[in-house]
Design goal:
- The protein is of the alpha+beta class and 99 residues long.
- It has one domain (15-92): Arc Repressor Mutant, subunit A, CATH 1.10.10.10.
- It has helices at residues 16-25, 28-39, 44-51, 55-67, and strands spanning 9-15, 42-43, 71-78, 81-88, 90-96.
- The chain is elongated and about 50 Å long.
- The N and C termini lie far apart (42 Å).
Length: 99
């Protein structure tokens, strides 16, 4: 892909409810998505094809991860409309257990 890659933050430290939400979101599938996106930014359709999952499911996971600050999402023109292109927003997440 030719889109400019947005530089991710190195680290984020989360605790409390935010830590619980991020822990819940980091499934085997979302981890595979994040690892794919470290190679290059990808659109939702391409992520789905590479992982063998539906575009609807990937869109749902992208919305979740972006809402938690783990993904950057940009919109770029495609062959047939607009493509939602994703890239990692952070390199490392530290979950603080101590209240």
């Amino acid at each position: 892909m030719s889109e400019a890659k947005i530089q991710p933050k190195k680290d984020i430290l989360v605790s409390g409810e935010q830590a619980v939400q991020i822990a819940d979101a980091l499934t085997a599938t979302t981890m595979k998505m994040l690892q794919l996106l470290w190679v290059e930014p990808l659109d939702v359709s391409t992520i789905g094809k590479k992982l063998g999952l539906s575009q609807a499911y990937i869109s749902e996971q992208v919305k979740l991860l972006a809402g938690l600050g783990l993904l950057n999402v940009s919109y770029v023109p495609g062959k047939r409309g607009i493509r939602k292109v994703c890239s990692p927003a952070v390199e490392r997440v530290t979950l603080l257990i101590k209240p």
